[in-house]
Amino acid sequence: MVQPAACLFDLDGLLLDTEPLHARAWQEAASHFGRPLRPAELMALRGRRRLDCAQQVLQWIEAAGGASLSCDALLEVRQPIAEALLVHAQPMPGARELVARCCELGVPMALATSSSRQAVALKAAPHPWLAAISTRVHGDDPELTAGKPAPDVFLLAAARLGVAASGCWAFEDSLAGARAAAAAGCKVHVVAPEGADPQLYPAGVIHLSSLNQVPL
């Protein structure tokens, strides 16, 4: 078995089951301003940075004839809802076991997430096993130029580990994240959410039903 130079992990929806909670928070916030979100719209928000999501939701609200809002006004409603929910997120199947296996094999790991440093700290606090992934690139990292689907987060994570992105295995769930990892040159493994169209993901990605299927 050929081991990867490193494993680069998304967080939301991949290691922790946060995406339904994020979706609920965006839905409640958008509905507060009179524009409920459709399932396809909620799916399109997955994997993206908070401000990028907020700007998209504002466009949908305004296109429906809603009031012109600032990101701050939208997030002032959304963030308390999200924070109350996210502390209860549970690990995704196979996540703890895969992190432990990487530790056992000595495979370097990094987190490549769209979530801010503060948000990651909130979500990771109940999960001490995540401390094994000490190299992290957050969505608000000062060295990060663009968020997913741009490849920057994976390129930066690989650089911080001192390895080439082309030698890394990247693990994602969202379409935006998979596109980012593929653009970075990683070998991409995807645990797609229910209802996602596998044909929309980049060619060559490895589709898994859960992280229990990772061949390490």
Please give a structural write-up.
The protein starts with 5 loop residues before the first strand and ends in a 9-residue tail after the last strand. Helix 1 (19-32) runs antiparallel to helix 4. The protein is globular. It is 42% helix and 10% strand. The chain has helices at 19-32, 39-45, 50-63, 71-86, 95-105, 117-124, 152-161, 175-184; strands spanning 6-9, 109-112, 135-137, 168-172, 187-190, 206-207. The protein has 216 residues and is an alpha/beta fold. It has a 6-stranded parallel sheet with strand order 3-2-1-4-5-6, with helices on one face.
* Structural shape: globular
How many angstroms separate the termini?
A: 8 Å
Average pLDDT for all residues? 95
Helix and strand run: EHHHHHEHEHEHEE
Brief description of this entry?
The protein has 216 residues and is an alpha/beta fold. The protein has helices spanning 19-32, 39-45, 50-63, 71-86, 95-105, 117-124, 152-161, 175-184; strands spanning 6-9, 109-112, 135-137, 168-172, 187-190, 206-207. A 6-stranded parallel β-sheet has the order 3-2-1-4-5-6, covered by helices on one side.
